[in-house]
Amino acid sequence: MYDAEATFFDEGVRVAKRKQLEQKLLQLIQPSYQSMLGHIRSEVMERFKEMFSRALSAGKDFAVATSECSESCLVQFDDKCKDAAIDQANWDSSKVKDKFKRDVDAHIVAVRAAKLDELTTLNEKKLNEALSGPVESLLDGASDDTWPAIRKLLRRETDATIHGFSAALSGFKMDEETHSDILSRLKDYAREVVETKAREEAGRVLMRMKERFSTIFSHDTDSIPRVWTGKEDIRAITKTARLSSLKILSVMAAIRLDDEADNISKILTLDLLDGKPGVAANKSITSLDPLASSTWDYVDPSKTLITPVQCKTLWRQFKTETEYTVTQAISAQEASKRNNNWLPPPWAILALIILGFNEFMTLLRNPLYLAFIFVAFLLLKALWVQLDIAGEFRNGALPGIISISTKIIPTVMDMVKRIAEEGQGRERSNYAQPNSTLPFKSFRSGNDDLGGDTSSSSSSSEVCSSETNSNFSSPRGDKKFQ
């Protein structure tokens, strides 16, 4: 249109005006062009973020995903910039492209830092779970093998976690220095977990000592509660329980993750348990009292959990709070001895013999008293067995008296009733025995009567026969006599 209208103008003027018009048009279009480039940069950047996120979610290595996604998006950015370019303007889009690259690099760095933080947090959590519980359990059962076991546990769990973490870091294509620095921080975190747990347990050392003392003092080797019968050696049991509690104090006194020797256990045992001052390394005032110090020999102050002075104070408080348990055990043992020993003291027995001599002679002169005493003893023995007096008094004197007072009258009535029933049973048996022999006697008497009648009848028959014979024989005799 411009060429058609400017045909009749001078060519130089026409060309100059044309260039001037083109420049004005380009000036008007340039803001739109810059806005278009910004829109392209934002659009391609969003597409890069989406592609990058999908690639990482698909399990690709971070370096591979970064390279593929950035190259693809740069190609897309160049193509879109070519489509938006104006031939007459010959504008340069390199600045926008550089800004796009910086945005991509910044996003990659941010995602890389987030992924590294996520991996680090995950492995730190894994280390915390793997170390906290076992370390607490090992410190609770403090012994000579506690810190060697903790060092072994720390080494094993740290190596296992670092092995997996190092394999995950290999996909980030980082330099060796950065890689070593990240692994070193993870190792330091593992040590911090152990040290933090040790400091927490050191704050509860007095409670742990009392629990250990109560467990050993109140239970035997089979974990069965002790019954103080008077045969136990309370002094030896107390010393064993205190030695075990002192072992907890010596284990908690310092952190020993570097396998360095110290003499904490020896000093505490000699000074607190045996009452003898330990041997200090320096010939100062601490040679008289090794616990009069704020540091341990051969132990870094930063690794000290409980100072020697604090150990002495804790031990004094521990003995004060456990003294009542020992006193109760001694009282229970003495009470058990008194309950099991029914004999009076020797002096009381001697007094009874001297003062009861007259009564003893009276018993010898009157044996009926002995029979009465024997019967009374049998009755009292029966009452003792029936009422279970020894069992009733195990719960105390007052409950035993109340229980016996409620049972004694029914028990006596029951005994009298049983004695009466036994007496009646004997009378019935004695009465039934003569009655059972009565039929035999009557039968025998009947036979005797029958025999008497028979003998009398036979005798009478004999008399009759003799008389008959005499009657028959007498005429002959008379005749013959005549």
Automatic annotation (TrEMBL):
Gene Ontology molecular functions: GTPase activity
Cross-referenced InterPro entries: RHD3/Sey1, Sey1/RHD3-like_3HB
Residue intervals passing through the bilayer: 368-387
Region annotated Disordered, chain positions: 423-482
Keyword DNA repair recorded: no
Example GO BP: endoplasmic reticulum membrane fusion
A GO cellular-component term linked to this record: endoplasmic reticulum
Entry keyword annotation includes ATP-binding: no
Compositional bias per record (Low complexity), positions renumbered to this chain: 454-471
Domain (Sey1/RHD3-like three-helix bundle) ranges: 2-422
Protein name from the UniProt record: Sey1/RHD3-like three-helix bundle domain-containing protein
Biased segments, Polar residues type: 430-439
Keywords: Membrane, Transmembrane, Transmembrane helix
